[in-house]
Design goal:
Distance between the termini: 61 Å
Largest sheet: 8 strands, antiparallel
Helix content: 10-25%
Radius of gyration: 20 Å
Oligomer: single chain
CATH class of the largest domain: Mainly Beta
Shape: elongated
CATH topology of the largest domain: Glucose Permease (Domain IIA)
């Protein structure tokens, strides 16, 4: 089993505390000793990096995190994508793996950390009001661009880890960060009639494996649609 590189310190602390508690309980009240072992296993499960079979299809976007789909929302305007967008929110409970993965092959445009509140990550307002890190990506063709992945702290989660910098290249499903304890991850894409969600609210998804969205139009139709969207987002050049 592989552990997330940013979880080693916590696992060392958990191991020391669990080991000491197990020894003490074994001596003073042995029936309770297995409880500390279960807590240690819970920490191990939280920080593990499970092997995933990453879809190779270039026409799909995959889940950037493990968790439950809480909302699929049409947004009138998102500054990072320059117009209307679709947002898919994923709630990560304390029982989910908390590593984050790239939803597609892409280049990093920008990484912005925003201080904020610590509302319950299941609250849709958390995306705008909670502490977060917003990552803007330029996907490889044929995906519409740009897209956004947002790591959001929650009621329990108080630390976001993001190891990305502008210009960095990401492979599909590549690990790039971690949110420690309950949290939320969002995928935000330009509104496109040919890019459709393939998941439903309440569905549990696996980061790096579950397909969240799929391009449905032939390549020639996509090119025309993307060009029209680009022209509507960019102001006309002055003559």
């Amino acid at each position: 089993m592989t552990l997330a590189r940013d979880g080693w310190k916590e696992m060392l602390l958990i191991s020391l505390l669990a080991g000491g508690a197990t020894i003490a309980l074994t001596y003073y009240f042995w029936p309770a000793a297995p409880v500390t072992a279960l807590l240690w296993l819970a920490g191990l499960a939280f920080f593990r990096v499970p092997a995933r079979r990453i879809p190779a299809d270039p026409d799909v976007l995959i889940a950037p995190a493990d968790g439950t789909i809480t909302d699929i929302t049409a947004l009138p305007h998102v500054a990072e994508v320059g117009g209307p967008a679709t947002r898919i929110g994923i709630f990560l409970s304390v029982f989910d793996v908390h590593v984050n993965r790239s939803p597609c092959a892409a280049s990093v445009v920008s990484v912005r950390h925003q201080p904020g509140l610590f509302l319950d990550a299941r609250d849709a307002r958390a995306g705008e009001q909670n502490e977060s890190t917003t990552i803007v990506l330029t996907p490889d063709a044929p995906m519409p661009r740009p897209i956004v992945v947002r790591q959001i702290a929650g009621l329990i989660a108080r630390r976001i880890v993001c190891r990305l910098s502008p210009g960095q290249k990401l492979a599909r499903g590549e690990l790039f960060g971690l949110i420690k304890f309950g949290s939320r991850t969002e995928l935000i894409v330009p509104a496109d009639p040919h890019l459709v969600p393939t998941v439903a609210i309440g569905q549990h998804v696996a980061g790096g494996a579950t397909i969240l969205m799929r391009l449905t139009a032939p390549a020639d139709q996509r090119k025309g649609s993307h060009e029209a969207q680009r022209q509507t987002r960019e102001p006309a050049a002055s003559t």
